[in-house]
Amino acid sequence: MKRIIPIFAFCSLAMTGMAQNDLGSGLNTGDLDKSVRPQDDFYQYACGGWMQSHHLPAAYSRYGSFDKLGEDNVKRINGILNELKTNEYAEGTTERKLSDLYKLATDEQRRANDGVSPIMPMLNRIQAAKDIKSLIALQMEMTSYTSNEFYALYFGADRKNSSQNIANVYQGGLILRQKEYYLDNDSSTADIREAYKAHIVNMFKFFGFSEDASCKKMQNIIRLETELAKVSRTNSELRDPESNYHKMTLKEFNARYPHLYMEQIANAGGVESKYLQEVVVGQPEFLDGADKLMATLKTEELRDYMQWRQILSAVGYLNEDAIAANFEFFGKKMSGRKEDHPLWKRATSQVESQMGEALGKIYTDKYFPESSKTRMVQLVKNLQISLGERIQAQTWMSEETKKNAMDKLNSFYVKIGYPDKWTDMSKLVIDTKKSYYENIIECKKFWNAYEISKKAGKPVDKDEWHMTPQTVNAYYNPTTNEICFPAGILQPPFFDATADDAFNYGAIGVVIGHEMTHGFDDSGRHYDKDGNMNEWWTKEDAANFTKRADVCVNFFSNIKVLPDLNANGKFTLGENLADHGGLMVSFNAFKNATKSSPCGNKDGLTAEQRFFLAYSGVWAGNITEAEIRNRTKSDPHSLGRWRVNGTLPHIDAWYEAFDVKEGDPLFVPKAERLDLW
User: Fold this and answer.
1) Dist CA 129 CA 133 (whole Å)
2) Residue 628, SS3?
């Protein structure tokens, strides 16, 4: 899957055998809003037509061109599952397992008959526990298919020895995920918190507990989560790789956190102590707080919290009434959705979450031609060359740091389309005599055992994929120094083999440049060419980087996403830098690739204009106010509007393409623009 792509010489992308002028523009001019000047509001100009013609569906909190592609992909995956469902396959085959799991997921009548009964035995056992010791015993029993209440334990690359996996312990415990939901007192946050309290009460009542008991459980849960929130790091603080790396011996861990029982719980889940002799603790002060909390917890507090987590982990696999009850808060209140997705779509997503790679193999065989992979390999080469030129052109970097940066760039491990080897799922058992929820538990147990066997005490497998082939996304992984572009994203509006380079470099080209730039953003820059966390920058260059990056932090932090809410420039810094770098690198590659064969004007637009419109069109979309608030707290990416209106005013070529001048609303003086790559 991953391939090292060396830089030898410049190669231009040949999307087809036709000349650039014989290819389409890739744009739908109806997506534009020409009533708006691009200099005033480029997002509205580039995307207003699309937003007008694609109203926000009731089941979505955000719906954009990105989401539309995801929806189209879900329909493809569902088509595969329905085809499998109607055919007969031998017991034990992957096709049979996919078919059986999907049948269980979509059997509404059977799930209605089961009601909430599949989860009740465990809820009752937790309720009957008489002391903390008994509850910990139940934690041990469940650890092979559920995460610990207070922290996450997983095996992953040691960031200072990236070729070897190591146990990592990371903060957890917050159902609402961000500490601000528990601690901030602005009206919108307080409203969410009160709604969450009411939801806890309603859900416990739904599962058969009395009003009084449900209220007491809510109070215990809120107290526990609030205490954890007080010692949790913010999302911005979690972005610093150096401050979230603390290696300890098992002996040191057990001595410092005696009430967390990490070793015993891990042993019960199948992890031998020999694989825990060294652990990387992400947030020691959080575990300090969690340990102190655990030492003083009343039995009923831990009991209620354990029940709550079990309810939330199970509810999506129970009957439709349970799902609807949970949707009232997490769907409607948290994100502003008006209705849930239909059963077939939810079922498709759930099967995909357990057996996504198996579906991905069928998907790529059916929908991803080898020619697309070949074209992407060429495009990635061009982007690598361009980023190398951008690095060499920086006057603020020393030659020493430039050399190290080029070494890292030339060592990128590139994955395109799909893996070269597929996961063996022969030991996964789907038993149709059991409930849907019970089968999901078996899936989780399978993946827990698989992860342990593959990673505990083992070297890092650089051929492992962290997304399924059908995923509409891409990623950069710093510990393997890899960039990955699954097959799912290699289609319009990101990639169009019938469109010219202006479109493809503006769309998928920027995506490629974005992921490459992550290797050099505020977090990725801390890792060297081998994926080790290592300071390879000179002190002066590191200081220059921070000074320049602060321009981006301050600019985005001053953006009003709502009248009473600012963007978080610190939290979104990495993604904003990657957007900026992706645009700079891809535009440079585009100009290189079309020197001898210019794209020319199409649809009344220059090639340069179409480049920026292709980029902007990716972020067309409508979104609820609730989701704006939610994503501003939880998503390291800026909102779509600001990935356009916040990013493009820092790109000199955009000013030239659209004749943006001083006095225009989006104009940023040259001296105040981000100047990094």
Assistant:
1) 9
2) helix
Domain membership of residue 376 (yes or no) is yes
Domain co-membership, 128 together with 58:
no
Instruction: Map residue 70 onto helix, strand or coil.
Output: helix
For residue 666, give the amino acid letter: L
pLDDT confidence band for 19 (50 / 70 / 90): low
User: Kindly report the CA angle at 557 between 631 and 584, in degrees rounded to 5?
Assistant: 90
Helices (H) and strands (E) in the chain, counts: 27, 12
Q: Which pLDDT belongs to residue 14?
A: 31
**How many domains does the chain divide into?**
2
How far apart CA 25 and CA 501 sit, in angstroms, is 9
Q: How far is residue 487 from each of residues 276, 361, 416, 418, measured CA to CA in Å?
A: 37, 11, 7, 6
pLDDT tens for each residue of 563-588: 999 999 999 999 999 999 999 999 99
CATH code, domain carrying 294? 1.10.1380.10
Query: Which residue segment(s) compose the domain that 630 sits in?
Result: 2-8+50-76+369-429+462-672
pTM above 0.90, yes or no: yes
Do 54 and 185 fall into the same domain? no
The token pair at 606 is 């220059």
Residue 185 falls inside a structural domain: yes
pLDDT category at 430 given cuts 50, 70, 90 is: very high
User: Per the domain annotation, does 108 fall within a domain?
Assistant: no
619-652 burial: b if 16+ Cβ within 10 Å, else e: bbbbbbebbbbbbbbeebbbbbbbbbbbbbbbbe
125 lies in the same domain as 226: yes
For the range 167-170, what are the long-range contacts, defined as Cβ-Cβ under 8 Å and sequence gap of 24 or more?
Answer: 167/266, 167/271, 167/275, 167/276, 167/278, 167/279, 167/280, 167/456, 168/279, 168/280, 168/282, 169/253, 169/262, 169/279, 169/280, 169/281, 169/282, 169/287, 170/282, 170/283
- Do 574 and 523 touch, CB atoms closer than 8 A? yes
415 part of a folded domain: yes
Say whether both 594 and 662 belong to one domain: yes
Give yes or no for a contact between 149 and 141, defined as CB atoms under 8 angstroms apart.
no
392: domain CATH number? Answer: 3.40.390.10
